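Record now logged for everyone:
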Amino acid sequence: MANIKSAIKRVEITERNRLHNKSYKSAVKTLTKKYFDAVAAYSASPSNDALQAAQTSLSAAFSKIDKAVKRGVIHRNNGARKKARLARALNRHLANAAS
């Protein structure tokens, strides 16, 4: 453990920030899983309700990813990659349904 006062403060701040970042990352993962579940439900039985649910969960996931990027929890390229992956999942099923 640190002996110097400023070092002790830095340890406390680092721990606080780590927990804050962890909550954002966890929320992003949770919303991503919910979105993929909604896409799977839509692909199993395509309907307007299932599509609406998938789009709603996509919007929530995008919002949380953008907030995490804005607060510096994840890098902007990482956020862009996550968002592209989410959008691609639904677009694949929409393309299959259209053809």
